[in-house]
Design the sequence.
């Protein structure tokens, strides 16, 4: 006869002890990942370090999940509720772990290791899913599309930010972002002997930057446009026949994002028209969708962080940034709380933040987060109405057949 699992103070104590037991190994792993600085889709050793530790902790590990060489899935248990802890580990080019993904990996892996002995008691199937290429490439979006999250009813992870941000994730979000490459094609000519016979693609790149710069005055304050010229000629005595501009657009809703993208696209089209060049725009990464926090699960997390004396006051919402966890959250109940690193008064994606992500203060909150993640999973799994809701929300991809959508 099936019995509903019950969260007890003894279970919470045991989970906290589990995190403590694995602390030396999880700390070494997080520090190793920080030192590796492996970028998107190149996280061979980082993914390997996380997968090896989970295997050591009794998980069955599949490497190269769904055709992504630096993804993995570590599984334990066979309960009706499937819970996924997302493990990130990619760094940023040149500046390393300036977004603290080593801390994300450490928190998720430590939480998974602490939960492993209790999967049967909690009635869960626990998966720690290694999700590469969050910074660029949309690893989670690819894994979702390819079936790595099929059957998952709850997905969780944490993300470090600067000091002073509340630990209460309810109502917070992150922007949709799409990234693109605009290529202008003109005609080469000698820049001194026959410049009038050329069509200058670099001019089109400059005009597109000016047009987008002017557009910024008339877009909502929470929209973002970023761009840089990747190519615009190579020597001074040739009229550039090719120019490439990489750009991205961000907004908090897909409707707003699509409207912004159209306005930016017209800036590029106007630059092409003015210079007589031709224009091709292609997407370079999967679209990152807006983040949706599950408020019921967030309440368990907030209660857990209260135990650690953290600021859990209501948030006005995160005002920038994007994550491919947004894609997961659109179809699976999800939690993506923000971890405030003490003393971190510098922006993320900076050399200074990369150094702070390897500090004792950062690792201290990482282990508090690991404990809170484990407690949150236990609370969700043992609250009958919530458990039933999450089981019912298990993700099932729609597939198109000759008979229609199923």
Sequence:
């Amino acid at each position: 006869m099936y019995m509903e699992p019950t969260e007890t103070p003894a279970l919470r104590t045991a989970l906290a002890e589990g995190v403590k037991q694995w602390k030396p190994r999880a700390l070494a792993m997080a520090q190793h990942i920080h030192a590796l600085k492996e970028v998107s889709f190149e996280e061979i050793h980082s993914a390997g370090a996380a997968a090896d530790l989970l295997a050591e902790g009794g998980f069955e590990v599949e490497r190269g999940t769904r055709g992504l060489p630096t993804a993995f899935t570590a599984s334990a248990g066979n309960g009706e509720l499937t819970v996924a802890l997302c493990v990130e580990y990619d760094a940023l080019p040149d500046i390393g772990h300036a977004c603290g993904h080593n801390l994300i990996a450490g928190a998720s892996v430590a939480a998974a290791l602490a939960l492993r002995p209790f999967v049967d008691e909690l009635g869960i199937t626990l998966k720690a899913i290694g999700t590469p290429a969050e910074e660029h490439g949309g690893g989670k979006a690819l894994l979702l599309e390819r079936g790595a999250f099929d059957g998952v009813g709850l997905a969780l992870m944490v993300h470090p930010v600067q000091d002073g941000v509340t630990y209460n994730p309810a109502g917070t979000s992150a922007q949709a972002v799409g990234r693109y490459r605009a290529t202008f094609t003109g005609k080469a000519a000698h820049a001194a002997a026959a410049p009038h016979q050329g069509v200058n693609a670099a001019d089109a790149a400059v005009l597109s930057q000016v047009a987008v710069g002017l557009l910024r005055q008339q877009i909502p304050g929470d929209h973002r446009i970023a761009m840089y010229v990747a190519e615009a000629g190579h020597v001074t005595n040739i009229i550039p026949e090719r120019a490439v501009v990489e750009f991205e657009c961000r907004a908090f809703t897909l409707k707003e994002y699509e409207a912004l993208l159209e306005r930016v696209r017209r800036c590029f089209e106007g630059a092409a028209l003015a210079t007589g060049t031709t224009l091709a725009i292609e997407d370079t990464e999967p679209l990152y969708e807006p983040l949706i926090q599950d408020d019921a699960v967030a309440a368990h997390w907030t209660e857990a962080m209260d135990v650690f004396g953290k600021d859990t006051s209501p948030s006005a919402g995160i005002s920038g940034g994007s994550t491919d966890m947004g894609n997961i959250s659109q179809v699976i109940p999800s939690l993506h709380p923000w971890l405030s690193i003490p003393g971190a008064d510098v922006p993320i994606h900076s050399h200074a933040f990369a150094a702070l992500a390897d500090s004792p203060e950062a690792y201290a909150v990482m282990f508090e987060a690991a404990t809170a993640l484990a407690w949150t999973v236990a609370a969700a799994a043992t609250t009958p109405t919530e458990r039933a809701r999450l089981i019912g929300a298990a993700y099932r991809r729609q597939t198109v057949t000759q008979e229609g959508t199923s």
User: Anything to note?
Assistant: The CA atoms of residues 5 and 264 lie 53 Å apart. The first strand starts at residue 60 and ends at 63. The mean pLDDT is 95. The two ends are 33 Å apart (CA to CA).
